[in-house]
Amino acid sequence: MALEFASEGASVVAVDIDEDGLDEVTSKIAANGGEAIGVVGDVSDRDSVEAVVEQATDEYGTIDVLCNNAGILDDYAPVGETSEELWDRVMDINLKGVFLLTKAALPALMDGDEEGVVINTASIAGKVAGGGGAAYTSSKHGVIGFTKQLSHDYGPEIRANAVCPGFIETGMTEDMIEQTPDEVHEIVQETPAERYAEPEEVAQVVAFIASDNASFMHGTAVDVDGGWLVD
């Protein structure tokens, strides 16, 4: 997403708890002639989030688009195998992080003449069961609900939408692809696309939703799932 927005001419503030990952992303953006800074931050910590927003506004004056994309899986654990610690960690990052960063960024998002844009990464697990375990599925349902309420409460000053990816080849899923290739193959073969997606395919949809071409999209949860939810 950071690379896609930079390629479209945006000044990017990339945020991650992984400093090495941040350096890699910002270096790629700079090598392609884009503008970006990397800020180390923990989305589950209010003080950290507020510091991130302060640094972003100090650098660029405002925030036009906020993408809440941080998330972790729960190893598909059902309720009986979900510890309280796992539940809290998944909720802290996947749902509380969306709340904290959005709340901290609201003044900047509403500061300009144009509407601010918030795009939250939910999941097909935000619409159906089976795309994750108890904690992950609950957190992503929460992200969609939060997105709708944000749109209801702050439209038209804030235009809030979510994307619901299916199986995407990312750092989050690489272990599954390597360790259980047959299961992954079976999963993707059951979708009309008969494959999993590259991260760029989600990023392009997110960039579209952020653009003026999607100006009448409010409070939606857009599936980017290769047809996973077609039935």
The amount of helix comes to: 40-55%
CATH domain fold name of the domain at 64-224: Rossmann fold
Largest beta-sheet characterization: 4 strands, parallel
Q: Spans with pLDDT under 50 lasting ≥5 residues?
A: none
Number of helices: 8
CATH homologous superfamily designation of the domain at 64-224: NAD(P)-binding Rossmann-like Domain
CATH hierarchy: architecture of the domain at 64-224: 3-Layer(aba) Sandwich
Strand-residue proportion: 5-15%
CATH class wording of the domain at 64-224: Alpha Beta
What is the oligomer described by this structure?
single chain
- N-to-C SSE string, H for helix and E for strand: HEHEHEHEHEHHHE
Distance between the termini: 29 Å
Widest β-sheet, arrangement of strands? 3-4-5-6
Class computed from helices, strands and strand pairing = alpha/beta
Q: Give the rounded overall mean pLDDT.
A: 93
* Number of strand segments: 6
Keywords: Oxidoreductase
Protein name: Short-chain dehydrogenase/reductase SDR
GO molecular function, one term: oxidoreductase activity
Pfam family, one: adh_short_C2
